[in-house]
Amino acid sequence: PSNDGTPLTFSKFEEKKSTEKGRRINTMRRLFWGSPSPPKCPESSESYANVVKAYQSLEPGDFTGFLKILRSPSSQRLQSRCTAFLNTMEAYHDLPVQKQSDLVQDFYQSFAEYFKSFPEAQVTQIMEHVEKLIMTRLHKWVFCHDSCDDEQKDLALQRRIRSLNWVTPQMLSVPFPEKKIEVTGDPFLPAITAIIEMDAKRAPQDKLACVSKCSQHVFEALSTSNSEPANADDFLSGLIYVVLKANPPRLHSNMQYVIRFGLPHSLMAGESGYYFTNLSCAVAFIEKLDGPALNISPEEFEGYMLRQRAPPAGIRRLQVASDTQHLLEEIQGRQEKLDQGMDALNMQLQQWVEAVHSQLDEATAQCALVQKELLSQAELSQVLSSSSHDASLQEQEKESVLVLKDEQAGPKDTDC
To answer: Domain of life, per the record (predicted)?
Structure first.
């Protein structure tokens, strides 16, 4: 130590670390901007103003809109730098994975400096799009890289989880009744499906979204057994049970991929960071799981692991009998409800038929009355028309008689 008590070795280490990080950042800036510092874009610059306006109008989660803006002429510089970085990373894909991680994180930092005048929330949204664009292309080059032992750790973790398939929710103190699980199906199945889907995603944020979705389903499953919200201990126990049941493919590689190439704010803040931290704790618990952690003796734990022990047959038979009895009671209750529903439906149907017949009889009676009235009106009109015809004939006959009488009398002799 020096005179002031500060260890010289530590200060030199910090100085060397800062120098190395500054050198990497300057290298990335030179690759990204063509110089050790980002270009100065005054507010009066028309192109910069257009870029700012376009990115500020971008809706959250609109990755397609981000790609359209990035391919526009005003963002040509940003697009060319992204393309150059991707080509460089693909050309040097044999670099150690930690070196690749440093380059990607430095690229994130350099890209974010271009939007340092933006609000933090907008910068976060833009960088999530950048991460998805970059890591979707680089996934095949950096995921489960040959320079690390991720593949071996994946196999070891899968074997470890497979050897623990005998662990029950009661051993993990998961607050959910086993009887209900056997009868209605595993309520953690949606969470199991979500954590398995993580391996199919490429972008770190999409993998984190699967972890968040899985965790939310765990909370939903726990809420079915308790009237009160689940606490942190219950959630962690449920998440451990989900991991044991799912045995997700390449779990270690997926988690390391998110740590190495994900945005720092995604892992250090918000729900996604909390859920990912709990997943890391669940995996660490599984790797160090022993008898006392499950409230059993070390001998029992070793016997279960070596398949030398199994739950007592009597307990299994009692559990199966209890589950069967509960299932029969549930089926009987459903059958009674079905019979009651059928009786009510038959009564309603009979009442409906009677109402239809009543309405039909009433309509038939009204129709008969209408027909009778129409018939009487037709007969009356016919009588009136025939009477008027006879009267007209009589008038014509009288006129004819008068004409004949006039003709027979002849002209009168007025002179006489």
So the answer is: Eukaryota
